[in-house]
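[step 3/7] inverse_fold.run input=structure_tokens len=374
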């Protein structure tokens, strides 16, 4: 698989054993000659950290060298703050995890970072990120490496790492073609094609939040009109809920608006829908239908096996998922939807950190990765 000769592979494995990255755990059954050695990755060799940075929260995890998660922590955050503030807090939390595990920053061999914006993957830089303009061209890799000097740092879009997490650890792992859709403050998707994450020519494949959903729609934060996330993500759902409350169309939302000092979230709209509030149900159906209509185009183009739905807004009720599914089934070709599953992510909120950790695996043993630990 690596294209190595038997002699070179033996030498490579011996080097890994000498470095304590691989260790012998026994012998296998004889096939007529010497018994083969059974080797496993030494989970105690070092640590891998995963950062899942969202628009309003950060999720961090610390794993051993096999990728088994040892600790997980999440807390609110505002990605509009400067990058050094958010990333600095991430480093602090990982340091606290390391102390509880008896480890040090020098033992961290890799850090995977997911951020909510367009990433030039080769450089690990955010380019024109609508949610976090202060982060543009910020040297994320270099900054993270200041806290973890021996670590290989890999940066990708947040929804890409969620798709990677689902591919590695979801119950349906082994799927070759699927789309992972995150619906929160923004909307984005990660694409697994032929078993690999697909980033496109410059790393921005799957940026569906800025696909036009209505050419007469509102101005998006990116400057264009009628973008999907400007019409169907968390903020526009909350905005329509507030308008309904103020217009007297929803007693439930009017009461919640008063209780929350004039503020509503998409969660409030979901709660109202769960209580049977007609206005809230209509808002959720409209948003789900818009998202499903855009996804129908992806289904026609890509023909995935599964579309996973995740992110904070996905939790506002089954009506939302049902509306997405109905729009896809109505607008896409029957052949492309014959075996299509549209469902919630199996990993849920853990998809990001699992994916951030998994993201680092192919990069740890590259020349650059190995040089970090010499």
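[step 3/7] decode complete -> sequence:
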């Amino acid at each position: 698989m690596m294209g190595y000769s038997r002699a070179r592979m033996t030498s490579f494995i011996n080097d890994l054993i000498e470095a304590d990255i691989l260790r012998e755990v026994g012998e296998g059954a004889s096939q007529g000659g010497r018994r083969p050695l059974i080797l496993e990755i030494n989970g105690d060799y070092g640590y891998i950290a995963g950062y899942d940075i969202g628009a309003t929260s950060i999720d961090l995890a610390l794993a051993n060298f096999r990728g088994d998660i040892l600790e997980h922590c999440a807390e609110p955050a505002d990605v509009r703050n400067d990058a050094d503030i958010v990333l600095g807090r991430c480093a602090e939390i990982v340091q606290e995890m390391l102390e509880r595990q008896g480890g040090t920053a020098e033992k961290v061999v890799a850090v995977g970072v997911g951020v909510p914006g367009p990433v030039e993957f080769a450089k690990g830089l955010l380019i024109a990120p609508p949610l976090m303009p202060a982060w543009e061209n910020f040297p994320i890799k270099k900054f993270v490496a200041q806290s973890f000097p021996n670590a290989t740092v890999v940066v990708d879009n947040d929804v890409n790492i969620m798709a990677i997490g689902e591919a590695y650890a979801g119950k349906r792992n082994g799927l070759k073609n699927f789309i992972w859709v995150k619906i929160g403050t923004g909307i984005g998707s990660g694409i697994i094609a032929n078993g690999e994450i697909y980033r496109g020519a410059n790393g921005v494949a799957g940026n569906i939040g800025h696909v036009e959903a209505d050419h007469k729609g509102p101005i998006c934060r990116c400057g264009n009109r009628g973008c999907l996330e400007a019409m169907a993500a968390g903020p526009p759902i909350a905005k329509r809920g507030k308008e309904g409350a103020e217009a007297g169309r929803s007693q439930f939302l009017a009461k919640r608006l008063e209780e929350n000092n004039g503020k509503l979230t998409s969660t409030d709209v979901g709660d109202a829908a769960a209580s049977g509030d007609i206005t809230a149900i209509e808002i959720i159906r409209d948003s789900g239908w818009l998202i499903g209509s855009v996804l129908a185009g992806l289904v026609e183009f890509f023909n995935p096996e599964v579309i996973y739905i995740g992110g904070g807004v996905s939790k506002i009720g089954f009506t939302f998922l049902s509306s997405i599914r109905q729009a896809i089934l109505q607008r896409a070709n029957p052949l492309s939807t014959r075996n299509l599953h549209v469902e919630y992510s199996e990993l849920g909120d853990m998809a990001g950190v699992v994916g951030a950790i998994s993201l680092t695996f192919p990069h740890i043993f590259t020349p650059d990765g190995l040089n970090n630990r010499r």
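[step 4/7] annotate
The first strand starts at residue 22 and ends at 27.
The longest helix spans residues 278-302.
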